[in-house]
Amino acid sequence: MMTEKQITLPITGMHCANCANTITRNLKKLDGVAEVSVNYATEKATVTFDPSVLDENAIINRIKDVGYGIPTATVELPITGMTCANCAATIERTLKKMAPDVVEATVNFATEKANVEYIPGEITPADLIAAIKAAGYGVVEADTDLLEDAEGAAREAEIRDQTRKFWVGVAFSVPLFALSMARDFGLLGAWSHAPWVNWLMLTLATPVQFYVGWDYYIGGFKALRNRTANMDVLVAMGSSAAFFYSLPVTIALTLGSNALGNHVYFETAAVIITLIKLGKLLEVRAKGKTSAAIKKLMGLRAKTARVVRGDEEIDIPIEGVSVGDVVIVRPGESIPVDGVVIEGHSAVDESMLTGESLPVTKESGDEVVGATLNKQGRLKFKATKVGAETALAQIIRMVQEAQGSKAPIQRLADRVASVFVPVVIGIAAVTLLVWWFAVGVGFTPAMIRMVAVLVIACPCALGLATPTAIMVGTGLGAENGILFKNSEALEGAHSLKVIVLDKTGTITEGQPSVTDVVAGTVKSVSRGTTNPDEWLVKLAASAERGSEHPLGEAIVRAAQERGQKLVEPDHFEAVTGHGIVAQVEGHQVAIGNLRMMTEQSIHTGDLESEAERLQSEAKTAIWVAIDGEAVGLLAVADTVKPTSLAAIAEMHRLGLQVVMMTGDNRATAENIAKAIGIDRVLAEVLPGDKAAEVKKLQSESSGLVAMVGDGINDAPALAQANVGIAIGTGTDVAMETADVTLMRGDLRSVPQAIALSKATMRTIKQNLFWAFFYNVILIPVAVGVLHPLLFLPMMLRDLHPVLAAFAMAFSSVTVVTNSLRLRSVKLN
């Protein structure tokens, strides 16, 4: 069986969705590649491949061969512990073994420094440091914030370069356009028609054409070399047609001939390039905002940690914390890594990860999560997860993977984008021929229409319609403690018709608690106490101190919550399947079910009717007998979470059928369901049968079915469901199986996740409608279908290429801006 490996690489040089398709197509040609996903919005390529057939270098080289780049970072690491040149060679060899993530490594024994070039995203400086330490050497660690963020730096450099070119374009295009328009409208007099004016226009247009617009020539050449066509081809063809048409006209007019025409279009070529450059700049800046949520998550990472070393507390870089280290966190500080509290008491703000606004109390034995904020007391905890294993790192990785995946709805846009540019070029050619020969308007007007068609067509809007909305949607979800495993899950959640809720830990608290105390009327109850209920709970809890049964633990917990001081039982015996018997303060205490009372010949008296009442309320009645007399009942139940009722009401508002699945008996399940508004109950379901029940619901339902659970035995059912939703307070197994993870143990997150899915899909459909509508409507306008309609303004009947460029420049910006509107959606 093939062992697959997956890598995600940042890509530079993509200008439209066709660029992503080109990279995808070329990577799929490599033997051993199983799956490729190139996301134009995130500018990343995710490749799944067989490492026994090819390695990462082949993938990287193929991307570079087709004309795109992969940004790398360089880090200098001071090394300690080297004693000779052989040590330097050993470290260098160790680092080079990490290829292709490490592109190049050199170690200088004299300077005691290692210079490493690596691919960010695949490896981090912390990984390099760990490898050097594993080889037996030390590293003087610097603040990793000072290390170069290669991908971010590459993006910023690209934006700076494009911004500079845009302003160069403005500096030459504005006077050129003003001069051309003023001459056309007769505002400058006869001198403006002199041949030298055309040469001035050529002088102004040339820097724009071959400096500002050079990217389009390079991009177009790369695309054609790969036997495809993209936006760069359209812009290069359109602007070049206007520019190179004007050259011979200028020369002819200088020689005194107007055989080739009287008008030049240098300003058209220059303004087309400048406007489209403006559009791409605005698009890039807007795209940057779509990833604001994940940048915010990354910003939560602590930079340093205060750890105990020997007898002192020292501050070290976060990368230096190891599992087992004892970490100190003072009030107002961020918790640096995940761990378990061993000393102290505090309230911790976890809202940045879970969306829960109320601080959570933490004391000895409680888990703490890195990046959360310690609000009050001093905490000392033992680190259990560091680096890539922390909850924050896993959340970031999950969001990145979701943003990089392709939603099923995107397939149509991808198919259209793959043939879009060749079709547009064909339409432009036909437009030129029809207007030139069939209509007979002459070459120049026909050429201008052709340029308008080439320039107005926009494949970028199609490519950005889905991924930008996915990026904003998944980011908004992460801010509210809702994590989508991939974009398919985000899309699928909006079509759900049935929600199956596991009862224990999902609807209920997941642990039993004492709900009722019923003291009997026999004389033994009143011995030495004025409060029979308290006396009953104290004796029962003292007897149960030796029990590990969940019901026994619930009784002990109830006594502790009442502030009662418990005593140690003198004797303890567990009666399998029935209860316990213990000696407490000279009394023989028997606690268990009715069968135990019967077998020990204990008279139950008038308490049986009370037991029946409690059981009718879906509670477990626990009998308490003292010295051979039944003295009372303790009712224990897994109580419904306070938020479950509101959550289920919200699910109904969204048009969902709510089903509860439980192993409880039907009577108990029906009582709970009735209290909280459940539509249907699946009771007495064994853990191994949960997946089969979900499958049965799928066959019965006309829509998709979701399963919500938190335990290990929910994992098969979560996998079976169309959308598996794991409550984040549950086990790692359930979270790994689920399509959606809710970081809060709050059922209200379920309708919030579905509402977010619906809002995201609504935005995607709006984007796709705009992208298709724009091209379907405006390309025919550029062709000239409105020309016969004399009542329309001339600007629509004969669309000028400058207006076409303006429309094209802002079409993709419109799509990205619409996606950003998702950030204002209120989920609470």
Verbal overview:
Helix 6 packs antiparallel against helix 8, helix 13 (410-438) packs antiparallel against helix 14 (443-456) and helix 14 packs antiparallel against helix 27. Helices cover 49% and strands 19% of the residues. With 828 residues, it is α+β, with helices and mostly antiparallel strands. The radius of gyration is 35 Å and the shape is elongated. The longest helix has 35 residues, at 150-184. The strands form 6 sheets. The chain has a 7-stranded mixed β-sheet with strand order 17-29-28-27-18-25-26, with helices on both faces. Strands 9-8-10-16-11-14 form a 6-stranded antiparallel β-sheet, with no helix packed on it.
Give me some keywords for this one.
alpha+beta, 7-stranded mixed β-sheet, 6-stranded antiparallel β-sheet, 29 helices, 29 strands
Instruction: Determine the number of helices (DSSP H or I, runs of at least 4 residues).
Output: 29
* CA-atom Rg in angstroms: 35 Å
Poorly predicted ranges: 143-148, 522-526
Mean pLDDT: 85
Strand order of the largest sheet: 17-29-28-27-18-25-26
Total number of strands = 29
Question: What structural category arises from helix and sheet content?
Answer: alpha+beta
Biggest pleated-sheet summary: 7 strands, mixed
Q: Work out the helicity level.
A: 40-55%
Distance between the termini: 46 Å
